[in-house]
Amino acid sequence: MSRVVHTQTPSLAVLEPRGQVALEVAYCRSRPEDLAQRRITRTRYNTGGQAVAQWDPRLHDLHNDDPTVPPNLATVYSLSGQVLSTQSVDAGLRVQLFGEAGQGVYFQDGRGTQRQVEFDALLRPLAVFEQDLCTERFSYGGSSAGHNQCGQLIRHDDPAGTSHFPEYAMDGAVLDQVQQFLKTLDTPDWPAPPNQRDDLLELGEGARTLSQFNALGEALQQTDAAGNRQGSNYTVGGQLREAWLQLTGSPSRKILVSATAYDAHGRTERKSLGNGVVSQFDYCPQDGRLLRLHSRRSSGEPLQDLHYVYDPVGNIVSIEDKTLAVRFFANQRIDPINRYTYDSLYQLIEATGFEAGSVRQGPDHRVDPLAVANFRQTYRYDLGGNLLELIHHGPQSHGRVLTAARYSNRCLPERDGVPPTEAEIAAAFDASGNLLELEAGRALHWDWRNQLAYVRPVERKSALDDIECYIYGAEGMRQRKVRTAHTNARAVVSETRYLPGLEIRNVYGDVLHVVSAGEVQVLHWETAPPTANDQYRYNLADHLGSWSLELDSQAKVVSRESYHPFGSTAFWERGDSSEESYRRLGYSGKERDETGLYYYGLRYYLPWFQRWANPDPAGVEGGLNFYEMVRNNPIKYVDNFGLSPSIWITYEGWQERVLSNAELITEFSNGVPKIIFSGDGHDVPPLRYALGVPDVMDANKSGTLSLYVEATQEDAVNKSERFVPEFIMQDRVEVVGWEPAELSTSMLDLVTILMEHAESDKLSSSIIVDQVEMLGAKITSGLSLKAEKLAKEFSLLISDFTSPEGYAPEVLSRLMNITTSVWRDEFINPYLAEKIGRAAGSDSGKTLLVSVGFAHLDPQYNPVQKILSEEREIYGFQQKIFFNRSNVPVFNSAGK
What we know:
- The protein has 13 helices and 56 strands.
- It is an alpha+beta fold and 896 residues long.
- Among the domains are: 51-210, no CATH class; 649-739 and 843-884, no CATH class; 742-825, no CATH class.
């Protein structure tokens, strides 16, 4: 990190009287000789303290010159505080209406797509209608239903087909699931009678997946639709120790991962793969950062030896693979080191490393492994975070220039050196911000839910186009991929079906089953295999989860791939294995389609543009630029699901530690109760990230979830729609308003009086004096319970403030300071830590989600998570502590 680049580039926040951030000021500098650019993000609030308009630095500067420039996001709320509509310059208009119980009943976007949801008397969804078609139906078990189906979802008809749930565990976990696909690829219109719905499905019993769990809800075994069984064994702490797989027809299990060891912080230190490869992870004892990731064969021969170097704030500045030798080619010395440089906002501005001598890489491309060269990439961003220019120096041609729309973050590339016009950019996106064309002749088509429906890779004027279709289930995850290629003689169809733990690929009549078990895949051909059947593939990934080294069952290298910072392939080579590579997973562990798009689950990523094909479904949670990739820091952050990145931290001992992507996924899906703090306490409703956390949703089903929200208990109960997301089953959750009611109300009333007398030196009337003295007595009494010293100071200040002679300016200033921040650090945070500690200590099986204003988690002061961690022994709780300081935290589990 260049101290000159970062000198005098503070991050500032301007607070309005209620303590909410009205302006965020950052300073950006890329080179030491540059002047730091001021970048202001502005938020305007309504009288209820809700954000109604937000401008990023680019539109803020334009708005200063022209008040008609729209905000990046404008929001309208109902009287109960729910979001009724949003108008985004990137994603267009979104409207939603709610029922009396706060359930979402109607949705519409800027394209005119309408969705209506019908509920039963228990507020369970019964049917979803889109554009006059019934695209989903739900059926539930009655009071006499067996197999723990009472009140549970037993049939769900969605755009991909029908899911049946014949059996549940006592805690609500699904033990038996059957998936049936539709006969056609058309959007269904589900009739009400079940037998008529069955007529729309393929013949047969469907694909059945069976699961087993232990008493803690940890997954023990899963039998996929082809009969393959995979299972897990755990340590006493609930961490994965061993994973195994037993293929259909095989008499015995094969160990895939074993001897997994963890350090005191729960991080993986060592593990052994089923092919004899041992991986070891070394961490910095001071800050917990990964320093070395090395893997070796059973003979001791190294396969991967990644060494990481960081700047003081945790950005990776170099990665060296010491298993690769220094190479010399075309008068260049090529070192196996990638180096990275950042600006003062921690955006990547330069990367160097090595790449192959040509851009075409992949299993079908033969390449001389010695034909490599150094590369250098530089990146230029606008004030809104759009990566407008990538300059590539090297044998490959990855450079490009984009032009952003004047009032949005929608971008198009220059063609033949000519930038697109405003009209051309507008025509390239639909009203919801979805990109309509990859390039000339390759159109993108989107469904009613803003999911990519199909691509035309080849368009022909005098013949049928090639087409690749995508079908999704109700949760937005891809269930089928069907590609039709037309030749002069016939149409050739290939299809992939996605089931739990299993992919079924039918490529021109050859059927391949890909069994997935964590980092291992097994290739089983139902038709004649090309060589041997049941081929094992072990993946050695980097810190982002990118598939770097693919090994066979003998630990021989099948393929090796490295990537440029934003995901394009820098180098690909075959290894010493005689087996072929059939992998589709690449950058950050995601599937790469034949179109070149990466499928992340809820979005598609364009690695050649370094941005997303459509706006972030999570909305403003990841920032005001809905197309930006991982905050323009792709070396540090990873996106699990097509949502914006989010930093999750654990507090261990006396220090914080940022969780890696792999750790985060493991920690939030290991079935172990936990405490999670989030800085979204002022959101309505908060805790929206919880939908993607498997352990939270499982705890909700089993009735072991508690929500602690920033409200009084009365408001938490009477206005639950403001604090409980609609996906949480309210009859199975405890909702606690953690604010001390009388003290909080008194503080707010006093703040109002202080603001009214900001320009005075004496209280305006005896009535006000009496009111201040009464409020002061209540507040002093409340503060004395946890902050006796502060209570005494406060009492003296109230005496000075109510003096008949008037008060000095510093008295008012100190009172404002206490009522807006000091009492939070010295009273509220210790008070909340005690409340959470006692609740967790009294029930070790409970998971607690705690929403607070992000200032409660600020390490500069006295953060609540630090207090709670230090008082663990006092309250005797076992739950691990996690937190996210963002007011819009994001988490989604990885997967296809």
